[in-house]
Fold each of these.
Amino acid sequence: MSLKYEDVIEKYEPVLGLEVHVELGTASKMFCGCNTIFGAEPNTQTCPVCLGLPGALPVVNEKAIEYTIMIGLALNCSIAPFSRFARKNYFYPDMPKNFQTSQYDEPICVNGFLDVEIDTDEGIKKFRVEIERVHMEEDTGKSLHMGGATGRIHGADYSLLDYNRAGIPLVEIVTKIVPGTGKYAPEVARAYVAELRDILRSLNVSDVKMEQGSLRCDANVSLRLIGSDVLGTRSETKNVNSLRSVERAVRGEMIRHAELLNKGERVVQETRHFQEDTGLTRSGRSKEQAEDYRYFPEPDLVPIVPDAIWIETLRAALPEKPSTHRKRLQEAWAVPDKEMASMINADVLEIVEETVNLGADPTKARGWWLGEIARIANEKEVAATDLPITPKDVAEIVALVATGALTDKLARQVIEAVIAGEGRPSEVIEKRGIKVVSDDGALMVAIEKAISAQPDVAEKVRGGNVPAAGALIGAVMKETKGQADAAKVRELLLKHLGQ
Amino acid sequence: MTMIKKSASEMADALANGETTSVALTQAHLDRIAEVDKDVHAFLYVDTEGALAQAALADKKRAAGEKLSPLAGIPLALKDVMVQKGIPTTCGSKMLEGWRPPYDSTVVSKLRAADVVILGKTNMDEFAMGSSTENSAYGPTHNPWDLSRIPGGSGGGSSASLAAFEAPLAIGTDTGGSIRQPAAVTGTVGVKPTYGGVSRYGLVAFSSSLDQAGPCGRTVLDTALLHETIAGHDPKDSTSINAPVPAIVAAAKNGNVKGLKIGVIKELQGEGYQTGVLNRFNESLELLAGLGAEIVEVSCSYFEYALAAYYLIAPSECSSNLARFDAMRYGIRVGDASGVSAEEVMNLTREVGFGREVKRRIILGTYALSSGYYDAYYGSAQKVRTLIKQDFDNAFTKVDVLVSPTAPTTAFKIGEKADDPIAMYLNDIATIPVNMAGICGMSLPSGLADEDNLPAGFQIMAPAMKDDRLYNVGAALETALLSKWGAPILSHVSGLGARA
C-alpha cells in the first residue's frame, strides 16, 4: 500500500527542476549538411562529419543558432555576446567521436523565465519558472541492444547502431529550481512543458513531438521537510514521453521519495526511467559519483558572436505568444475561464481551434473534444489528440448534427466508429447505414407496432396520461435502432393517440 | 636520372616546353622509389596506378591546350595523416591499418584540381607524435644523408622523400615542428603556414588548435608554388581564415631584404644548441646583413615555458581527438567475440592499436583535463599560450621577421633518444612557439655542421598571414648560400652511396 499524495505534501515540500531537450527542425544537422528526416532507413543520413571519421571537421549550422536565439528570446533570456562550444568527453558506441560537442560554461542564452498558469480548486494560479540557460548540442546516434532480457547494453548479445540521429541539433532548456509549487508541483511541471511546447511550436523551430522524442523532458525532483531549507537528494527521471507522463512522473517520484524518507532510508542520486504502463520509475544510472567529462573548449569551432542587429531583428519577428493567443481565442469564443482551463488541461485547445477553423461552432467543437472524445481517451488511457480522429472528422460531424442529418446520439456512435478505425464519418454512416429516420410513414409503422404490443399503455395515454408515452417512445426507438429523432416520434405518437 | 634531380619549377618548365611528359616524370620517380625506398622507407604506400593515371590526365589536358596550374603534372608525396579517397591512410598507426577513407581532404582536392600527381603516402610518427619518425608502427624512415640517422619527425617520410629524390614536392603537417624540424635535418625546405591558412579538413587531428598542413620542397620557390596551390579559405574548416592568400610566389621570386629588420631571438640559441648548427646560423645572419638587412636581438622571455605548455595543450586535445578510435566504425578491431562487451573491445583495441608515445600523450592529456586539475594544467597552459603570443606581438612591433636555428642539433642516430622522451621533446624547442601563437614559420638549409657534415636548419618566423615575408627572406638567403656553396646542398647527400 503506497503512501497517499495528501500525506506526502502534508510533510514535505517538493523541489522541482526541469531539463527539456528539443530537436530543432532544421533541414540539416548541427555540424554537417546531412538530412534530418525522421524514420529514414538506418545510416542513410550520414557523412564523414557526423560519423566522426578521421580528419572530418564540424561547421556550425547557422539556422540552428538562429532558432536557439529565437527560443532564448521567447523565454525572456539574455543572449550572450560571446559563447562557445565545448567537448563533453565520454565513451559510448553510439557517439561517433566519443565526445559530444555541446555548450558548457559559456551557453548562448541565460537567465530567462516562463510564466505558467494552472487551474486549481482555489482558481487559476500563476507560477513563474525561471530559466537558467538554453544551450545547443548535437544528438547522439541510436543503439538497439538485441538478445538480452532488458534491452539494455549489459546482457545484450549484440547491438545495432543507427547514426542518422547523430548530429541532429538539440537545444537544452534548463530551469532553475522552481520554488513554492507545494502540492501543485506535478501540475506546474506539466503546465511548464505544455507552455514551452506551445512556444516552440509557435516559433516553428521544432515539431515538438514528445512521442517521437523531438521533445524530451527530464524531471528532477527532491523533497525537503516543510520549513527546512536543506535540499534533499534528487532523482532525475528520463523517458517522460507525454505531458500526462510529466505530471505522473513528478507525482510518482514525490511519493517514492517520501516513502523512503519516512522509512529513514536515503534517496539515491540517480537517473530513473519512467514506465508508461505502471506510471512508476525504475532505477537507471547512478550519479552518486560525478562523472568527469573533461570539458574543454571545442578547438575546431570558432566562438559564436551574434550580431546585435541580428538579435533585434529576430526579436522583432517573434510570433504572438501562446498565452496572448489563448486570451484572444477565449474572447472570440466567449468561453468562461474554467472551460478554457479544462481545454488547456486536457490539451485539446489547439485541436479545438483547428476544428473551429474548419467551420465548426466553437461551443460544439469544444463539447465533442472535451466530452465524448475525452471520455474515450480516458478509457484508453491516451491523450485525446492521439486518438485516430481528426479536427476535420469532428467538424464534419458537427455540421451533420447542425443540419439534422445526425442526432447527438448517432453522432456519438459515429465518433466511436471513427476511433475504432471504421473510416471517416461519411464512410461510417454509409457502412453502418446510420440515418435519422424522419420518414413519417416508416415511423408510423413502428408506432402502430408499439401500440399493438402495449395496448394498455396506449389506452392510458389516450386517457390523458401523457408521461406514460415514454414506454411507447422507447419501444419505437428500439425498433428503429436509435436512428429516429425522439422528439419527432413523440410528436407523431401523441397526435396519433389524440393528445 | 637527371630529371629527378631538378627542382619542381624546372620540371614544370620541362613539361611546358615539351622536353618531357608527366607520365615519364612520374615513372622516373616511381622507378627511383623502387630503387631506394627499401633503404629509406619514406613511403607507406605507393599508388603506382593512380599516379600514372593522374599523370596521363595532366598530359592529356596539356596536349588539349588547357590552361594548367604551375604544378600540373608534377609528382608529390603525401603525408599519411592526410586522407585521400580510396587510398590507405594509417597515420603511421596500427589502429588504422587497412582503412581506406571514403573522402578527400581539402588539400587533396586542391592538389587534384591543380593536376598534381600524388605518388603515395609517406611515413610518419604515429598520429604525428614524435620528432624522429621512429614512432611509426611500420618501422622508422632513414635519413638519406646517413641511413643510420633519423629524418626528423613527425613528417620524416615527406622530408626524406625529397632528400632522396623520390619526390620533388611533399605535403607535411606541423603541430610543433613536424614540417620544419624534418626539413632542417634533411637539408630541405618546409613551411608551417599561418594557422588557418591551409584547410585542416581531412587532416587527421592530433591537436586541433596547433595542427597545420603545409608545403615541403627542395627550394624556396618550389615550396612557394605548392603553398599557393593548397592555401585559401575552406568553408568546411571553421578555423580557416577567410582572407586572400598573401602573394607567396611573388615574394619567393623577389628575395630582397634591403632595409628589412630581422630579429634574432635571444632565448633560442646558446646552451643545448650544437656548435656547428650555431655557426651556420650566424653565417646566414652575416649573409643577410650583407644583403642590407638590419639584424637586431629581441627577447621573448615566455618562450622558456613554451615546451611545458605545449605538452599540456597538445596531449589534452589529442586525448579527445583520438577517442574516436574505438573499433566501432573503422580501423582494426580486437577481441570481438561472443560474450565480450563493446567496452572491452574498445579497451583491447586501443591497447593493441596505439603505440607507447600515443598512449603516453593520451594519459597526459586525460590527466590535464580532469576535474580538479584542469585549471592548474590546461588552464595555465592556455595562459602561457597567450603570453607567448604577446611576446611575438611585441617583437613584431620592432622587426619584420624573427629568426633562430630550426632545431638545436643535426640528425641524431636512430634509437639514440628513443627511451628519453624529454630529450626527444627538446628537438622542438625552437619550433613550438610558432604553433602556440598561430603564426607562420619556414625552415631552410643553412649548410652542413662542422662536427658531422650533416645539414642544419635556419628558421624564419613572420606574423599571421604574412607568410610572404618568409619566402622573401628565405629566397634572399637561399640565393646567397647557393652562390657561396656553388651547388645545392642536396648534391652532397651521401647516405644512398652510389645510388644517388
Note: Chain A has three domains: 5-314, 321-432, 440-496.
Amino acid sequence: MIAIIDYGVGNLFSLCSSLKAIGAEAIVTSDIEKIREADRIILPGVGAFGDAIKKLNDTGLDKIIIEEANKGKKLMGICLGMQLLFEKSFEYGEHRGLSLLKGQVVPMEGRLPRELKIPHIGWNALHLTKSHPLFKYIKENDCVYFVHSYYAKDCEESLLATAEYGYELTAAVVKDNVAGMQFHPEKSGDVGLNILKAFCEWEDEK
Amino acid sequence: MITKRIIPCLDVKDGRVVKGVNFLGLADVSSPIKLAEYYSKCGADELVFYDITASYEGRALFTDILREVASKIFIPLTVGGGINTIEDFDRVLKCGADKVSVNSGAIRNPELIREAAQKYGNQCVVISADVKRVDGVFRVFAKGGRENTGMEAISWIKKCVELGAGEVVVNSIDTDGVKGGFDIEMLKAVCEAVNVPVIASGGAGSTQHFIDLFKAIPDIDAGLAASVFHFGEIEIKDLKKELSDNDITVRL
C-alpha cells in the first residue's frame, strides 16, 4: 500500500489514476496511522513552498514523514513534493524544508539565460547521471513533463537525472530510501508510468 | 532541450467531438474518449478539450467524459469552454484537468485570471484568444469568434499575462478551418509581446505547415490542430518524425 500524503496541496486525481493503471494500491490520506502502515509514501505538491511546508508543520505531517523516512520507508516527492525534501527554499522569502536531502531550492528567475521562458513547462529529455532501480524501465533521453519555476541546487550528493534548460537542471534525486522527481511522472505518459512502477517495485539492494 | 509540443484539440458537444470550419457548420467526428486514447498512443504531447455545450445537462456529461479521459490518459489535459468563475476552474480541475483555458469569461471579467492564478498557480491558467484582423488591426473576438470586442489583441494578451496567465493559445480566425497554414504574422507579434509559452492554433493543413511554423518562429512552443488530426490527414507519429528530420526538437 502506498500512502499519498494529503495536506490540501494540489490535484491528486491523476496521480491516483496513474497508480491504479499500473495496478498499485494507493490511498490519499493525512491519517498518521495509515501513513505508518503504508509500505511506501508519495509526497505530492503543487503551489508555493512556503504554504506547503506550513501545512505540513501545522498538521504535524512533517514529523511523521521524517520519522518514516528515517526508518527506511521508501519515500518519493513529486514536483513541489521533491523540493520539500531539501534543506531550504528561497521561494518568496526563505523557508526550511524537511532536510531529508542536502541542497536548496532557488528561483530560475535571474539564473537562466534571459531568452528562456519561466516556468520551465513542457516535455524535456532526461539525462541520467547514474543507474538506479527507479529508472530500470527507462533510458537516456526519455522525455518527461515538467512544470516549475524553481529548481534544486547544491544537491550533487543525491543527483540522479538532469534536464537541459539553459543549464542542466535537477530533474531527479535519490539518496538511500528517499527519492524526488521534479517532473510529473503521472503526466509523462508511459515513461512516467514506468517510473511509478519502478518505485512500487523498489527494494533495498541486497 | 525542451521539445516543441503537438496538441490535438477536441471540441466536445453533448458528449461528442465536433469541429467547425470557420466556426460554422459543425461536423460530428468521434468519441472523445476513443480519440483521446488514440492520440495519446500516437505521441500527442497534450490534449485540449473545449466544451462547446451550452446546457447544464451537456456540461455534466462533459465532466463525466473528462473524468474518464483523465483516468486513462497520462499526458497533460487542458480544458476550456464555459469557464466563467472560480467554481468552473474547480469543477474541471477536480475531474483531472491540469490547465484551464479561459476566453470569453476573461473578456467579461479579467480579474478571473488573477483570482485563478493566485489560487491554482500561473501554470494552471491559459488565456485563449480568438483573433481576427479588422481593417488591418488584430482584434479580439468573443463568443466563439462571433462577436468583435473591439479590443486590440496584442495588448489584451499582454494584459492577461500580467494578470497571471501562464500560457497563451492564439487562434487566428483568419486562418482557422482554411488549412492554408498557421498565421505566422499574428503569432510572431504575440511571441514578441509575451514571455510565457505560446500555442499556435488555426490553419494547419499539412505537415509542412508545422515545419514552417517552428522554423519561422523559434519561440513558439506548440502547434494545435483539430480536424487534420481527427480525419487522419496528418498522423501525429509521422508529423513528429518529419519535424525531427527537420531539426525541430520533439518528443519521439
Note: Residues 21 and 193 of chain A are 8 Å apart (CA to CA).
